[in-house]
Amino acid sequence: MAEKEKESKSAEYTVSLRKASLKGRPDIQKAKNAIAILYKFFQKKYHKPKEQVKISNEVNEEVWKNSNNIQARIQVQAIKKDNKVLVYLKESKELKKALEKEREGEKKTAEKKKEEEKKKKEEKKSAEKEKKEETKEEKPPAEKTEKLSEPKQEEKQEQESKKVNKE
């Protein structure tokens, strides 16, 4: 279950900001309201509290640069990573950097897993070799063991049967 939480998922969204640009509001309130709409959208989408939703600087700057004339929609990409939601502009530099870091992290974890698997295989092989050596040492050599010849075996069986008959 912990492994699933560490996995990151990304998705693209087009968020409507029309409600933020209602007439009769000051420009500052329009921008603040637009940011609040973004937070609410991702809180509902990912079921996370506001503290776990992070909006990138580029998204914030995009909203604030047009604070007097807020866009009707904004295209963003959200990445769910380590129990947080990171929101970036669709084709931004920050998004590319984040994705590159993520890929590097995935490569490192894959390499670590491969190394661990190799170590486990080596340990198993060495354990098997030790077991084989121990079993060879425990078994007495074939020359020292006496094999009963057929006549001796027959004699023993007869003696056993006589004992059973006497009782």
From TrEMBL:
Keywords per UniProt: Ribonucleoprotein, Ribosomal protein
GO (cellular component) term, any one: ribonucleoprotein complex
Listed GO MF terms: structural constituent of ribosome
UniProt region (Disordered), positions on chain: 98-167
One annotated GO biological process: translation
Domain of life: Archaea
InterPro entries, A to Z: Ribosomal_eL31 (IPR000054), Ribosomal_eL31_dom_sf (IPR023621)
Family: Belongs to the eukaryotic ribosomal protein eL31 family.
Name of the protein: Large ribosomal subunit protein eL31
Natural source organism: Candidatus Iainarchaeum sp
